[in-house]
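Quick note —
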Amino acid sequence: MKERGIATKVDGAAVTVRIGLSEGCSTCAASGGGCGVQGKELEGIAMPGSRITVGDTVELQIPDSARTIGVLWLLVMPLALFFAGYLGIASLIRGAGEGTQALAGLAGLVLGLGLATLAARLGKLSRRPSVVAVSDF
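Predicted structure written out below.
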């Protein structure tokens, strides 16, 4: 994913970028005012050799692997823990009813979402995007 913006702060290799309109904004369903990205400031790491100064037009490049890791943590992990709880309680407690299995599955789902939230807050999921000056292309 690539987003263009303006560098608002440069501190060594750390660059703060205010996201602006990009080419894809006109076709986006949220272009009517519900955009959650436009105007937001994100921090990224300047690519080695880039000479970025405040006011430069830059491009944030977010690797596809970061998106894949996010999907794994936010979708696959909670669903896997749901099924582990749902099926696991049946093998641990003989004669466990459907309600008990559903509650155990929901507990696994909540645990998975809690782990994903904890990982995000601890910075385990955050990979800063690369920042490249548009003139460097």
